[in-house]
Design a protein that fits this description.
The protein is built from 14 helices and eight strands. The protein is an alpha/beta fold. Helix 11 packs across helix 12.
Length: 300
């Protein structure tokens, strides 16, 4: 039964574990002027998006990673643009968002990856920027995209910051299963995309240290903090700090649980009001917020 429910959980992958984000983002809010303030960009979002602020703390998170107007930013798995819609007007016309998604051969590993789904992924790197450009309005940042493992050379050394909100678990999951070096490749691409001194910001579902490693391999959404730090450092980054802004001590999963039991997915609760109330009392997942930096002297 657990495996069956876990399969259902993965169906949200195109939205980057943001099933509710897709619903909330159906209509883009009006964009402001070039480089509008972060608070103004956040205030322009829909009520459904704002309802997640108490869990995701977007202003504090983006400020912690040092994201500012005019920057070039690599956004991992932007999905339907929960963060992108905030970033484009905030970064302004001098800014740029480079979206990064899973490698096509990794997408093919998901059980739901039928021919129609794969066709959408194959055209994503052109289709998604065309759609996302509308979200920023006349003075929003420019948008482009690539798949991990096939990053164009023109992106190398151009980014000021890379932002990975809840991106790493499936990369780690398939790599741990021996399907491919997906996590290593994504981190290597990110390292090359960043300028020397550029920042990688990671927000990730956080597994407690005492949880079994085979449970915390990403398949249930959670990873251990030390695992993430070790993997990112192995890619050449320096670990420079962390914040508790996205921590949630109410999220105490057992080995029978996975992250998609919680809002906004509600995979176990369905439409049962009592079950939904129980997980609402927990809130969204406990998340680590980690800050890394590419050294000023490039390793490559």
């Amino acid at each position: 039964m657990h495996k069956y429910v876990l399969l259902l959980a993965t169906l949200a992958i195109v939205g980057c574990q943001q099933a509710a984000d897709e619903t909330a983002a159906e209509e883009a809010p009006a964009a402001g002027s070039a480089g509008q303030g972060l608070a103004a960009s956040l205030d322009a979002q829909s009520a459904e998006v704002k309802a997640r602020y108490k869990y995701r703390h977007p202003q504090e998170t983006l400020e912690f990673f040092g994201i500012e107007p005019g920057m070039t930013l690599v956004e991992g798995l932007p999905g339907r643009g929960w963060y992108t819609r905030v970033l484009l007007p905030y970064l302004g016309e001098d800014g740029r968002v480079i979206a990064a998604s899973y490698a096509l051969d990794m997408f093919a590993l998901f059980p739901f990856a039928n021919e129609e789904f794969m066709a959408r992924q194959q055209s994503w790197a052109t289709d998604w920027p065309a759609e996302a450009t509308e979200w920023g309005g006349e003075n929003g940042a420019s948008v482009t995209a690539f798949h991990f493992g096939s990053m164009p050379e023109e992106f190398e050394g151009t980014a000021d910051v890379a932002f990975f909100p809840r991106v790493l678990h499936n990369l780690a999951r398939f790599q741990s299963q021996g399907d491919g070096d997906y996590l290593d490749t994504a981190l290597a691409d990110t390292y090359r995309a960043l300028k020397p001194g550029g920042v990688l910001g990671v927000v990730q579902h956080h597994a407690r240290d005492e949880m079994p490693d085979d449970w915390a391999n990403g398949a249930n959404g959670y990873l251990k903090k030390q695992f993430v730090i070790d993997q990112v450092k192995a890619a050449g980054f320096e670990f420079i700090g962390e914040s508790g802004i996205n921590a949630n001590p109410n999220d105490q999963p057992t080995t029978e649980n996975y992250v998609w039991r919680l809002p906004p997915s509600y995979n176990d609760a369905g439409d049962d009001p009592k079950l939904r109330a129980e997980v609402d009392a927990i809130g969204e997942s406990n998340r680590m917020t980690l800050k890394f930096r590419k050294p000023n002297q490039d390793r490559y």
